[in-house]
Amino acid sequence: MFKKILFATTATSTCDNAAHVAFDLAKKYTSELSVLHIFGRPSRGFSTIVTDARTGEDGHADDDYVAWVREEMNQYYEKQMGECGTCEMDARVGVPHTEILRTARKKDTDLIVMGAHSRQEEPGATRYRSVVGSTMQKVAKSARCPVLIVSRPCTTCLWYFSNIIFGTDFTKASDSAFKFAFKLCQEIGSKLYLFHALDLSATQSGTILEQTEIEGMIKAARKKIEQRYVSQMGDFDNYEIEIWEGIPYVEILKYSREKNGDLIVMSHHTREIDPEKALLGSTVEQVVLRASCPVASVNRPHKVSDDE
C-alpha cells in the first residue's frame, strides 16, 4: 500500500517516536524509505551562510558540511536502516515545509511521516501550548498524500493495528480520509470505526434542544454515514458506526480510548474551504496533540482513490 514513504526528521530524539513508525512501516510494506532533514534557510545571493531551522543560528553550509550532516543522520539511524530494505538519507538547506512538499511530489510519495513538532523543547511543552508545529501544519495543508503525525510513543504501529477510528464531519475532504482509512482496514484486516461528533454548540447556540430533536439529528447522521461511506464498502462487514454529541475533539478522543484505537484518520480541516488556503483545523490539531496513537491527516483524493 505504501510503495514510497517520506520521513521528515530533525534526526534527533524529538523525532524518535515518528522514526519508530516510519521504519516499521517501510519494513512491513518493503517500501522505499526516504529520510529527509532540512537544516537551514539559505540567505540571499550565492552566499553559503544559512540560518539553522531549529536554533536560528547562522552557519556555513558548503558541500562538506552537508556531507557531514548526512553522515550524522546515517549514524543516528544506523540500527533502523539495517532492518529496512531500501533507505535513502538526504539533508539539504531550505525552508523545511517547502522542501518536504517538493521532495514528496518529486518522488511521488504515498505517505509522509513526521512528528507534531520538530524543535528540541521541554517534554510536553508543545501540548501545554496546544499548538502543533508550523512545518507540520503547512505540510498537512498542501500534501497530495496522507500525512501520518506521530506525537507520542506508538506501541502497536502498523504491524499490529487492529482498530482504526475514522472521524468525519461529512466534508469533501473527509471523503478522501474515509478512502484512506477503508483501504488501510482492507489491507491490514483491521476493524473500522466510523465516528461523527454532533457539535450542538456550533449549530444550536442560544437554544435548548428537546431530547427528541437530538435523537433525530443522531439518527440523520447515522443514515448519512451509511449512505456516504458504508455504501462503498461492499461485503466488508468489520465495522461499527457511532454518533456522539459534544465537543468534536473531546468526543473522538474519548471514543478512541474506549475502542483502543491504534490510528485516528481525519481530514485536516473541518470547513468547506479551498484546501490551498485552509489551516490545520482546531479539531484535528487538538486530536494530534492529545491522542495516544498516531493521527493520519488526509485532505485530498490523490493517493487514496481506487484508480491510484
Structure notes:
The longest helix is centred in the last third of the chain and has 18 residues, at 211-228. Helix 4 packs parallel to helix 6 (134-142) and helix 11 (248-258) runs parallel beside helix 12 (282-290). The chain starts with a strand and ends in an 11-residue tail after the last strand. The strands form two sheets. The protein has a ten-stranded mixed sheet with strand order 6-2-1-7-8-13-12-9-10-11, sandwiched between helices. A three-stranded antiparallel sheet has the order 3-4-5, with no helix packed on it. It is 39% helix and 21% strand. It has two domains: 1-151, Rossmann fold, CATH 3.40.50.620; 160-307, HUPs (Rossmann fold, 3-Layer(aba) Sandwich), CATH 3.40.50.620. The protein has helices spanning 16-28, 63-76, 78-82, 96-107, 125-129, 134-142, 157-160, 172-188, 200-203, 211-228, 248-258, 282-290; strands spanning 4-8, 32-38, 40-42, 49-52, 58-60, 86-92, 111-115, 147-150, 163-167, 191-198, 239-245, 263-266, 295-297. It is an alpha/beta fold and 308 residues long. Strand 3 (40-42) and strand 4 (49-52) form a beta hairpin. Mean pLDDT is 82; it is low at 122-131. This is Universal stress protein. Belongs to the universal stress protein A family. Residues 1-150, 162-297 form the UspA domain. Pfam families: Usp (PF00582). InterPro entries: Rossmann-like_a/b/a_fold, Universal_stress_UspA, UspA.
